[in-house]
Amino acid sequence: FLSLEQMPNSITFIGVGIISIEFASIAIKSGVETHMIHVDDEPLKGFYSAHVAKLMDKLATEGVQFHMNENTTVIKELGDNYT
User: Fold this and answer.
1) With the CA atoms of 73, 29, 45 and 74 taken in that order, what torsion angle do they form, in degrees rounded to the nearest 10?
2) pLDDT tens for residues 5-42?
3) DSSP string of 22-61, one letter each residue
């Protein structure tokens, strides 16, 4: 992600962990349509839930689209993109 020469039009991060939150924050501030998929409804387990909720709200306000309780089973290459 950090070595991309050009940002894509949209990007999806699988898992809402500390690293993907950082990357999503960079992506959304760069004008990239940003999605985050998480297997359950508890992102950033182990962190204080009130702070996590504030962070999620802030990112959602900035445009990050969260898809919670989604289980990713397959990633397919589709031309120059993935689905």
Assistant:
1) 0
2) 999 999 999 999 999 999 999 999 999 999 999 999 99
3) HHHHHHHHTT-EEEEE-SSS--STTS-HHHHHHHHHHHHH
Q: Say how many CA atoms lie within 13 Å of 42 toward its Cβ.
A: 5
Model's pTM, two decimal places? 0.90
Question: How many Cα atoms are found within 13 Å in the side-chain-facing hemisphere of 74?
Answer: 3
In contact, 56 and 22? CB cutoff 8 Å? no
